[in-house]
C-alpha cells in the first residue's frame, strides 16, 4: 500500500465472487437505509418531500472497493427499488438518484486529489459536501423545483424563469421557502441548508465507514 492510495480490484476471474458479494451487500444496505429514511419525519422538510437519505455511503464504498461500473449498477437498482414505496414521487426518486451519482463522481474526483494526505477521507467528503450543495442547489432552482411544482399542478409550466416570476408575485408560494419573497434567495436558503446538513450527515457516516472498509478489505483490493 502506497500511503492512502486506493488500488482497485483487478478484473480477474477469481475476484468476481467478491465483486458480486460485496456489491450485493452494499445494495442491500443502501435499500434498507433508504427505506428507513422514509419513516423519519422532520417537520417542514417532510412536507416538502425532502428526506435525509444517507444510503449513498454504501454506493460510494462499492465505487472504491469494487468498481465504478458496479457502483453505478447498484445505484440504478436502488433507484428502481425506491419506486415501490415512492410511486407518487417520481421526481423525488430521480433527484435522489442524481444526488447519489454526483456524490459517487465527486468522491472519486477528490480522492484522486487528496489520496496522499493524512486525513484523506475527511477532505474527500468535505469537498464532496460543498460541491454537492452548490450543484444541487443550482439544479433545484433551475430544474427540480419547477418540475416538481409542475408535476403536482402548482404551476402551468416548468420554465424556471416563469416559475420564479410567479413565485415572486404570489405569496401562497412563499411557504415553500421559509416565507422568503424572492425565488432565488428562497432556493439558496432552503436547499443550501438542506444539502449541507444532508451531506454533512453522509460525511459523518462515510468517513468512518470508508476507513473501516479500507482497513478490513484492503488485502483483497490489492493487485498482486
Brief write-up:
The protein is mostly helical. It is built from seven helices and no strands.
Fold blueprint:
Layout: H1 16-38, H2 56-65, H3 68-82, H4 90-114, H5 120-151, H6 160-169, H7 183-221
Helix pairs in contact: 1-2, 1-3, 2-3, 2-4, 2-7, 3-4, 4-5, 5-7
- Number of structural units classed as domains: 1
Assign the CATH architecture.
Orthogonal Bundle
Question: Mean of residue pLDDT?
Answer: 85
Please give the share of residues in helix.
55-70%
Structure notes:
One of its GO terms (cellular component) is plasma membrane. It is found in: Cell membrane. The structure is a single chain. It contains seven helices and no strands. The chain has 224 residues and is mostly helical. It starts with 15 loop residues before the first helix and ends with a helix. It has one domain: Arp2/3 complex 21 kDa subunit ARPC3.
Defining traits:
Arp2/3 complex 21 kDa subunit ARPC3, transmembrane helix, 7 helices, transmembrane, 224 residues, mainly alpha, membrane, disordered N terminus, globular, cell membrane
Amino acid at each position: 500500500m502506497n500511503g492512502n492510495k486506493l488500488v482497485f480490484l483487478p478484473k480477474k476471474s477469481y475476484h468476481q465472487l467478491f465483486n458480486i458479494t460485496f456489491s450485493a451487500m452494499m445494495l442491500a444496505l443502501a435499500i434498507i437505509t433508504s427505506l428507513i429514511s422514509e419513516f423519519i419525519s422532520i417537520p417542514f422538510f417532510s412536507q416538502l418531500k425532502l428526506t435525509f437519505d444517507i444510503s449513498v455511503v454504501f454506493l460510494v464504498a462499492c465505487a472504491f472497493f469494487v468498481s465504478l461500473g458496479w457502483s453505478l449498477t447498484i445505484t440504478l437498482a436502488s433507484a428502481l427499488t425506491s419506486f415501490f414505496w415512492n410511486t407518487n414521487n417520481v421526481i423525488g426518486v430521480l433527484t435522489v438518484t442524481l444526488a447519489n451519482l454526483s456524490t459517487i463522481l465527486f468522491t472519486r474526483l477528490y480522492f484522486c486529489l487528496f489520496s496522499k494526505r493524512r486525513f484523506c477521507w475527511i477532505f474527500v467528503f468535505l469537498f464532496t459536501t460543498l460541491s454537492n450543495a452548490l450543484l444541487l442547489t443550482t439544479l433545484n432552482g433551475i430544474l427540480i423545483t419547477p418540475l416538481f411544482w409542475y408535476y403536482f399542478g402548482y404551476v402551468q409550466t416548468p420554465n424556471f424563469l416563469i416559475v420564479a416570476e410567479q413565485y415572486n408575485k404570489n405569496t401562497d408560494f412563499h411557504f415553500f421557502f421559509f416565507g422568503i419573497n424572492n425565488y432565488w434567495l428562497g432556493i439558496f436558503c432552503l436547499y443550501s441548508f438542506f444539502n449541507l446538513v444532508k451531506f454533512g450527515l453522509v460525511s459523518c457516516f462515510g468517513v468512518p465507514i470508508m476507513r473501516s472498509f479500507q482497513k478490513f478489505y484492503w488485502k483483497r483490493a490489492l493487485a498482486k
